[in-house]
Amino acid sequence: MENKEMIAALVGSAIALVGAFDITCQIYKMTKIDARSRGLKHPKLWGLVAMNGNNSSGLLLYLIGRKKYPVISMSEQDRTEMESRKKKAGVGLIFLAAGAIGLILSVTLL
Question: Whole-angstrom Cα distance, residue 75 to residue 22?
Answer without folding.
Answer: 24
